[in-house]
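Might you be able to review the protein record set out just below?
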Amino acid sequence: MLVRVAQNAHLEVDSFKDQKFNGRVTDVANSANNNDTSSAASSTSSTTSTDATKFQVKIRVADKENFLPGMSVTADIETRSRTNALSVPIQCVTTRMPPTNSLTAGATNA
């Protein structure tokens, strides 16, 4: 699992439009919690291989705001980082085949 205690998190709270908050992971559950009770999850009786395993993660918010229990939050957790790395959009990356030998079959070098 990539999520660990002390990793940085960036939060978006639905109640605070156009504001981002910072936090730090303080706890990661030891066991998965896949008890999704949403109507979309209950409408399908079987799980597929694309289902994600869910772990409860606790994040301490660094910014002082009046958050209330039950507020909807989206968190991006920094699981890896690199320094001195070049970042480019995936659309800019191409693959080229190595050049083929210019000699044709039966030709000889003189």
Summary: Helices lie at 39-42.
